[in-house]
User: What shape does this take?
Amino acid sequence: MRELISHPADLTPTTPWQDTVWAYTPEETLVDHTTKARLCVATLLPFKDRQPDWDGFSKSVRWMQQCGEHYGVEMVFVLNADTGYIFDLSDELYAEVLKRFRAEFPNQKFIAGITARGAEKDEVFKAERYWPLLDIAQSHDNGEMMIMTSRLLNLLAPEARRDAYFQIAEHITHPAIAHALEPSFVPWASPYEPWLLHEIANHPKYVGGKISTLDEPHFLYWAAMCKDLNLPFAPHSGDDYGIPTAIRLGLPLLIGAGVSACPLIAAARDMWLLDSVVDKKFKTSTGRFDTNVYKLFEAFQSFEDLVFRLDDRLSAAPYKHSTAHVLHHLGLIASPEAHPDCKDLRGPDEAQRMEEALRRPRRVAKRLGIPYFGA
Assistant: This one.
């Protein structure tokens, strides 16, 4: 029986999770029925006739705000992240999204996706590639910066990768979230090992991180380490195949699924709480939580499994196009059209596939009295 690492001083840059106690912490010991954590939604920028559909953009944001207000869930809008086509947006359009959002929603918190610009021909990592988007996003108040990984950043050895994150932090003036991009979107990506996570979690600029992987429960590892060591760092689940896990653990979600299934996820956040929690909006009058939440978990999980299904390249990146079809079905945007430069597209039958995907969650929503999800 081998001894597992439980103290951060014993970690090395190459220690794998499987050598730590946090890789074997059961979810049951982390369950939290008292915390209603925030829902960060990777907000879609819809298009019509190859141009941004600003009316649809605003309408979808207001719809999600309405869902959050109904269930008392804090909503944070993730702008220019994967759902917002960050890799296709010009700097000018990136800036316009933020400018329009702040003008129309002056008090609403946002998270801005930040990635490297112009690094395609670089042979070594250059932190200054992050400056253009940082400068644009940090010109606005009440925002957080999500530092997304990039190929050359991801290729660095653990210590050099830590130093790179710290170098980027020198240019950060707002709270920051470190984003461990999952291999299901880009093949070169890799999540953090325990030493790197601990280093980033203790940096004063990084207040949280996003993690989602399909093959290993890294979110549980992060949650276990941060809780055990009382780290000042909030793990955000970005795994759209594991939304119930974050709800059960009372931890934030940072997901594209928050756009397509917003009322269902907001409802589940509230249903999971005990009646004794002041923030609970709809109490059971038993002192307990609403066990109907388990059926709701099943409903939106089956829904998102189809929205985020893997394509022939084993990539989930076309979920942006599926999300547009869902919002179109819900009457929130005028067209399911994607960004004109987006290459991650679904097939011509996607409208029908998303209509079928909506049947089960709509039925459950009706049964549970969840509003704002269509007839």
